[in-house]
Amino acid sequence: MDPRLDALQQRLGHRFGQPGLLTRALTHRSGSAEHNERLEFLGDAVLNLAVSGLLYERFSGSDEGDLTRIRAHLVREDSLHRLALQLGLPEVLRLSDGELRGGGALRPSILADALEAVIGAAYLDAGFDAAQQLVRRLFGEVIGSTEVESWSKDAKTELQEWLQARRIAVPAYRITATRGQAHAQTFEVECAVAALGLAECGEGRSRRAAEQEAARRMLDTLKASDRPGGPLRS
Questions:
Q1: DSSP class of 27
Q2: Helix-strand-coil percent breakdown of the chain, rounded to 5?
Q3: Which tens digits make up the pLDDT trace of 98-148?
Q4: Which helix (H) or strand (E) holds 20?
Q5: Which of 38, 19, 20 is nearest to 29 (CA)?
Q6: Is the dihedral of CA 147, 151, 153, 159 positive or negative?
Q7: Phi, psi of 166 (to 5 degrees)
């Protein structure tokens, strides 16, 4: 086996009895006809179920709405992208030469899909318990170290309230790009706060998801700037 795949399995904490499943999970549709989209579909469902179980255990006093919001934060594209980078997935993805030249190995949507595919592959390889343990290793620390209040609002709502509290006009959102075929598009959306001359972009597999990601990035920028010494406090 490729030493890079062997090292990846060590980082995952799961050794595949069927190595071909891992190879397929890491194969983008541009790289082969035997690509990872079906595994990504399966992995998405396994991930949602496994994360739901972890949240049910961790937040025993929370209602359905809270649990749903927390899960949405955890399984969103940006979160999966960061985990994929930590696991070193860009080094082992199988992409076409053209996709590689275009930066596909670092594209958030491709990496998020590949991680979901890896989870789906682990499920097929060794069953739900093995896949659930993999998800626990990936998400257990962040779930265990946060409180439900920190996940209580979606990014667009929090951003609007943050701006309104400072008497700043609400942001404007616009689609700046779409990629992919109609059934599997990726949207890029800009979130602009004209009064502050700021704009941030987000990507997602729906317009709403892209807007949420752009809003989250804008919030991060604004909160950093609002600290003592930041430009909004100068």
A1: B
A2: 65, 10, 25
A3: 988 888 899 899 999 999 999 999 999 999 999 999 999 999 888 887 777
A4: helix 19-25
A5: 38
A6: positive
A7: -110, 10
Domains in the chain, start-ordered, CATH in brackets? 3-148 (1.10.1520.10), 155-225 (3.30.160.20)
Residues with a known catalytic role: 44, 116
State the DSSP string of 141-158: HHHHT--GGGGSS-HHHH
Which of 32, 3, 33, 31 is CA-nearest to residue 19? Answer: 3
Distance CA 77, CA 64 (A): 22
Closest CA relative to residue 36, chosen from 96, 117, 97, 98: 117
Confidence of residue 229 (pLDDT cuts 50, 70, 90): very low
Chain CA centroid to CA 136, Å: 16
Q: Is residue 198 helix, strand or coil?
A: strand
DSSP per-residue letters across 56-87: HHH-TT--HHHHHHHHHHHHSHHHHHHHHHHH
Question: The pTM is what?
Answer: 0.69
Instruction: Name the more confident of 190 and 148.
Output: 190
DSSP state of 169: P
Least confident of 147-151, 174-178, 222-226: 147-151
DSSP E strand stretches across the chain: 172-179, 186-193, 198-204
